[in-house]
């Protein structure tokens, strides 16, 4: 069954109901827009889970220039400095914009911002809301604003399956819900679908975030960049729950330390100790666990008895697990948390396909480089949403496209892909492990099945990882442990990723040949 979407013809279509998508829609008002969310708003958005907050130079001892310096240092040589400079300078205004929309950020009794410190920041510049519930509070305010904005047509329970592209220009969106196929005619599409954590077994992201936006862009012919850079958060709660509850590094900013089962503080002698960049901390935890140890976050002394007040969300799930953070060390392990790579975009969020923009974690703006600075992601989503909206508004609606009936992709399921990426593209990687992943993913990505979209994104990540023969930021090759003298971003399209993967597969002897 095909639902008539003619009344929405020509409107910009925003795909994704997280902070980036909602903010883009609000910034476009009063222009009529269509917002697609495959789940009820907030149900599967990583933004809802964000604990750390939003980084912005709003403290008296801070400046955007200092924020920029910390961002560049964390990015390990791959930040686009012009983009980073522009984005961090806009961050204080983004905080004010969210406040105007009703976000209740934490303040001190004198009315000033209550700022937190996180890893690799030289100043306290993390703006929080309700302690560790920042993402939830931002999403509450944005969802309420979207629902009361008449220019936004919200289609919940609708999933984009393919972009319709002719002559490298967007012509429409094929989507589906439980009643059938929806066809939207438009020359302006924004992908704001979040990250890729659902492609891995251990992740702090909702399971429904597994790179669908990257698959849409790849099938449309767009360039994707820096896909190999996956950030593993070093302190996810080590328990059976999936997604894994996150223990924000703001706790370490408050003085908590990392210990093992013997009480040894195993990062004490590292530069920056527990507040070193996330990739360094994640590898230290990974290696200590590989040596046979258990790893814990020890908050008994700092913040100690104040833990429930400072971190009510974390305190609640620790209590459910039978742990009192004021008296018990909290078991932790690394888990996939954020993807620095994504759809390659310019300063206005435009991709290499005309009429296609990307915003939020699905976009590669150049801000994060090889390793995202803590709490820069929510900030980036809010800042860049306005620029995307301005760029879309400047293009205007094109002539109505004549959309031909086309087959639509089946709903995606990443279950088969998760063990492949978990084993081959973890915190520590090497050529043999990545090549095995490519060999498994290549036929899945070329097939027409529920696994093909997830396999395609996983394959593109693996191809990027095998091409980068060095270690940098969130990408660590045990067979190439040093960084190259100069850093360069790597871009891929679906076509050249499949071609590279085919060459790699053909160069690997089959199991039968290897035995003979």
UniProtKB/TrEMBL annotation:
Pathway: Cofactor biosynthesis; NAD(+) biosynthesis; iminoaspartate from L-aspartate (oxidase route): step 1/1
A GO MF label: L-aspartate oxidase activity
SUPFAM superfamilies: FAD/NAD(P)-binding domain, Succinate dehydrogenase/fumarate reductase flavoprotein C-terminal domain, Succinate dehydrogenase/fumarate reductase flavoprotein, catalytic domain
Pfam families according to UniProt: FAD_binding_2, Succ_DH_flav_C
Reactions accelerated catalytically: L-aspartate + O2 = iminosuccinate + H2O2
Key words of the record: FAD, Flavoprotein, Oxidoreductase, Pyridine nucleotide biosynthesis
Entry EC no(s): 1.4.3.16
Keyword Oxidoreductase: yes
Subcellular location: Cytoplasm
Gene3D superfamilies: FAD/NAD(P)-binding domain (3.50.50.60), Fumarate reductase/succinate dehydrogenase flavoprotein-like, C-terminal domain (1.20.58.100), Succinate dehydrogenase/fumarate reductase flavoprotein, catalytic domain (3.90.700.10)
All residue ranges annotated as the Fumarate reductase/succinate dehydrogenase flavoprotein-like C-terminal domain in the record: 456-482
Database matches in NCBIfam families: nadB, PRK07512.1
PANTHER family registered for this protein in UniProt: L-ASPARTATE OXIDASE, L-ASPARTATE OXIDASE, CHLOROPLASTIC
Similarity remark: Belongs to the FAD-dependent oxidoreductase 2 family. NadB subfamily.
Function of the molecule: Catalyzes the oxidation of L-aspartate to iminoaspartate.
Protein name per the record: L-aspartate oxidase
């Amino acid at each position: 069954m095909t639902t008539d979407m003619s009344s929405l013809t020509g409107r910009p279509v925003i795909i994704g109901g997280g902070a980036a998508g909602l903010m883009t829609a609000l910034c476009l008002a009063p222009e009529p827009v269509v917002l697609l969310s495959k789940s009820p708003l907030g149900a599967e958005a990583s933004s809802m889970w964000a604990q750390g907050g939003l980084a912005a130079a709003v403290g008296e001892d801070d400046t955007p220039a200092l924020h920029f310096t910390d961002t560049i240092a964390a990015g390990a040589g791959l930040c686009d400095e012009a983009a980073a400079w522009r984005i961090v300078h806009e961050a204080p205004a983004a905080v004010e914009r969210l406040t105007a929309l009703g976000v209740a950020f934490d303040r001190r009794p004198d009315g000033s911002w209550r700022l937190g410190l996180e890893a690799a920041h030289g100043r306290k510049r993390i703006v929080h809301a309700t302690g560790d519930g920042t993402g939830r509070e931002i999403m509450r305010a944005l969802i309420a604003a979207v629902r009361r904005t008449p220019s936004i047509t919200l289609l919940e329970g609708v999933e984009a399956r393919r972009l319709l592209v002719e002559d490298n220009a967007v012509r429409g969106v094929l989507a589906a819900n439980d009643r059938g196929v929806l066809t939207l005619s438009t020359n302006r599409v924004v992908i704001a679908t979040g990250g890729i954590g659902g492609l891995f077994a251990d992740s702090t992201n909702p399971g429904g975030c597994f790179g669908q936006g990257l698959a849409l862009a790849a099938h449309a012919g767009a360039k994707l960049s820096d896909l190999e850079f996956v950030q593993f958060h070093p302190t996810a709660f080590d328990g059976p729950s999936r997604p894994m509850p996150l223990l924000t590094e703001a706790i370490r900013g408050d003085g908590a330390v990392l210990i093992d089962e013997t009480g040894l503080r195993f990062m004490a002698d590292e530069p920056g100790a527990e507040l070193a960049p996330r990739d360094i901390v994640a590898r230290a935890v990974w290696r200590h666990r590989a040596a046979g140890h258990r790893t814990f976050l020890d908050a008994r002394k700092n913040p100690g008895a104040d833990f429930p007040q400072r971190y009510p969300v974390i305190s609640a799930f620790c209590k459910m697990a039978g742990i009192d953070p004021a008296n018990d060390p909290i078991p932790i392990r690394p888990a996939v948390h954020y993807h620095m790579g994504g759809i390659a975009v310019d300063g206005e969020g435009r991709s290499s396909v005309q009429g296609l923009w990307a915003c939020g974690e699905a976009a590669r703006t150049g801000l994060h480089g090889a390793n995202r600075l803590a709490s820069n992601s929510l900030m980036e989503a809010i800042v860049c949403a306005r620029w995307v909206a301005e760029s879309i508004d400047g293009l205007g609606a094109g002539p109505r496209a004549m959309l031909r009936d086309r087959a639509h992709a089946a709903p995606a399921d990443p279950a088969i892909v998760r063990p492949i990426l978990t084993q081959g593209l973890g915190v520590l990687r090497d050529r043999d492990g990545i090549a095995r992943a490519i060999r498994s993913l290549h036929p899945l990505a070329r097939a027409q099945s529920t696994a093909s979209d997830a396999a395609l994104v996983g394959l593109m990540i693996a191809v990027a990882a095998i091409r980068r023969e060095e270690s940098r930021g969130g990408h660590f090759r045990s067979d190439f442990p040093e960084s190259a003298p100069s850093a360069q971003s790597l871009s891929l399209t679906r076509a050249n990723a499949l071609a590279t993967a085919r060459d790699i597969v053909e160069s690997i002897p089959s199991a039968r040949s290897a035995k003979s």
